[in-house]
Amino acid sequence: MLAAAVDDPLVLERLRRQARSRGAAAFDFERIRLFAGLAAKVRQNDIRLRLPLTFTLLDRLKVSIAVFADYAKPAAALRQANKKSRADKIDSFCRFLDGWLDHGNPDHALAWDLVRHERALFELRDGATALPVQPGDAKREKVTAKSVPVRRARTAHHQMSANPLQLEQILRARSGDLSTLARGQFHYAYRWDEPRGCVSIDEVDELGCVLFDCADGENSVAQMAAALRHAGVAIDTGRLCGAVQQLVDGGALMLRG
Amino acid sequence: MPQIIDHNPGLIDYVELPFELLRHDPSAIKAEALAPIVLHCASMSIAGFVPPSDDTLGAIAALAERTNTPWIGEHLAFMSADPLRQGAALHEPTTLTYTVCPQLSEEVLQHACNNITQLQARFAMPLIVENSPQYFEVPGSTMSIVDFTAEVHRRCKVGMLLDLTHFLISARNMGFDPNREVRRLPLENLVEMHVSGMDVQSGTAWDDHAGLADESTFELMRTVLQRARPRAITFEYNWAPDLADAAIVGQIERTKAMCLNA
Questions:
Q1: Which 3-state string (H, E, C) describes A115-145?
Q2: What is the ipTM of this complex?
Q3: Sign for the pseudo-dihedral over CA of A150, A153, A154, A160
Q4: Cα–Cα distance between A81 and A78 in angstroms, integer?
């Protein structure tokens, strides 16, 4: 019974319900559930290789056992669906973590920052080997009102509650103090830097973040400026050209045509 | 691992490899180029009532021969169990990916001893048995984990793999004094010790191979070294690739000094 309860979260739930209805519990079901969380955590050691600091942070926040105890059920469902690749496991875990974390809790917000940061890093690295070099990678282009910006394929952007690079440093130091991190609302653009052969991470302002979202390769800078003004943002086309130019120069956007 | 060995010649005497890793990824045998291999195992379900398959035992024996391991370490635990009957439905037989502390009873103890005797006959090298960490009271238990572990060693005369962290975890979770209780083990059987990290979450101490051993582990090690001399001490830091080499090297050097001065 113990083995079945550790192995299968549904069996554990059923046994727990039955014990509760009988009013007696020979098993410490909560500790068994947490133990199953430890087993589930160890089972994810292959994705830990890709998200090492996320695991470190969950340990440091003393929530990793609880996270993986709750993750046991989705993880079992994933195995039953025969989705055993590392990509499937990472995708499943990230989606689960998004739902599990209390995004209003500053510590949990760091975990959400970090898992997206580490995921962006390895996805961009993997993408760099999978995709051909995009034309215009090294070309400087002048942005005008008629320019049509588009996000580069090997880019991502995330809103973070802290600087992910500083968070990395603190966790690598093990004894570093998380309370020294400046907290707020920051935006970071991640891109694969072909000449340097690494991921480049730049902080962008809120406008840059909006542009990143809007640069779909369909609308010109003038059209984007008009849409922003329509939405109540006081901005002229010239200023928007400058903001787009920064993202183009930084390599996050390119111009179509 | 190769980096630590390259940068610290003479520091590491052997590499302990799990049988399960070698079975899943035979290329892991390349570690033998770095240092001699000691084989560790979590597949024999010594304290269980469902034996491992002949295939598994054959594979362990073959890898033991292939690696020329001086002994085979195995957990005093179970990882396979009989099917669970639930009403008329038959639950699938259960095979876990993680070893579980057994019921601490005379019936299980005697069964574990029988298993050890039978398994030992399959291998050309000695089997040594590792104490489980206890995370919760197992219903039906009639003795403490210390009594259970000690009695297995007394009855079977089997070599002891004392996992210091497992012992500390059991002590914390079950409420005993590790430095007092460890003296009740037949330490004359001691062959190997394991060291890893321990993490306390949700009011329970957990095994943590991603964290460094703390001071309490070294205190327990000192207590043991005053009474016995193991042939090997293994640092199990195999969950996190980002542990700093310098910290690991520092712990190994400290342990070597403790062995010399004991």
A1: HHHHHHHHHHHHHHHHCCCCCCCCCCCCCCC
A2: 0.90
A3: positive
A4: 5
- B210 interfaces chain A, CB cutoff of 8 Å: yes
* Candidates B208, B239, B242; nearest CB to A172: B242
Q: Which helix (H) or strand (E) holds B89?
A: strand B89-90
Find the angle CA(A128)-CA(A129)-CA(A134) to the nearest 5 degrees: 50
Q: Does B246 touch chain A (CB under 8 A)?
A: no
Q: What are phi and psi of B215, to 5 degrees?
A: -60, -35
Query: Closest approach of chain B CAs to the CA of A31, in angstroms?
Result: 6
HSE-up of A161 (CA within 13 Å, CB side)?
15
**Among A26, A45, A56, beta carbon nearest to B242:** A56
Instruction: Tell me, yes or no, whether A14 and A79 share the same domain.
Output: yes
**Smallest Cα distance from B218 to chain A, Å:** 20
A171 and A53 in a single domain? The answer is: no
| B89 vs A: CB within 8 A | no
Number of H helices, E strands in chain B: 9, 13
Rounded to a whole number, what is the distance in angstroms from the first to the last CA of chain B? Answer: 28
Distance CA B74, CA B67 (A): 16
Query: What residue numbers bound the domain in which A246 lies?
Result: 135-257
- Residues whose CB falls within 8 Å of the CB of residue B101, separated by 6 or more in sequence, listed in order: B77, B132, B133, B134, B135, B138, B145
Report how far residue B176's alpha carbon sits from residue B220's, in angstroms, rounded to the nearest whole number.
13
If you count them, how many residues does chain A have? 257
Q: Report the alpha-carbon distance of residue A155 to residue B27 in Å, rounded.
A: 35
- Which helix (H) or strand (E) segment is A230 a member of? helix A221-230
Rounded distance, CA B79 to CA B252, Å?
31
Residue A102 and residue A8 in one domain: yes
Reported as type and span, the H/E element at residue B16 is strand B15-18
Helix axis angle, A86-100 relative to A64-80, nearest 10°?
A: 130
- Whether A78 and A175 map to the same domain: the answer is no
Residue A38 and residue A97 share a domain:
yes
Position of tokens 């001399």? B229
Instruction: Return the number of other C-beta atoms located less than 10 Å from residue A1's C-beta.
Output: 19
pLDDT truncated to tens, each residue of chain B (262 aa)?
678 888 999 999 999 999 999 999 999 999 999 999 999 999 999 999 989 999 999 999 999 999 999 999 999 999 877 766 555 444 556 677 789 999 999 999 999 999 999 999 999 999 999 999 999 999 899 999 999 999 999 999 999 999 999 999 999 999 999 999 999 999 999 999 999 999 999 999 999 999 999 999 999 999 999 999 999 999 999 988 778 899 999 999 999 999 999 8
Q: Does the CB of B136 have a partner CB in chain A at under 8 Å?
A: yes
CATH number for the domain that contains residue A148: 3.90.930.50
Same domain flag for A122 and A1? yes
Among the listed residues A200, A93, A100, the one whose alpha carbon sits nearest the alpha carbon of residue A157: A200
Token look-up 């000449």 returns A195
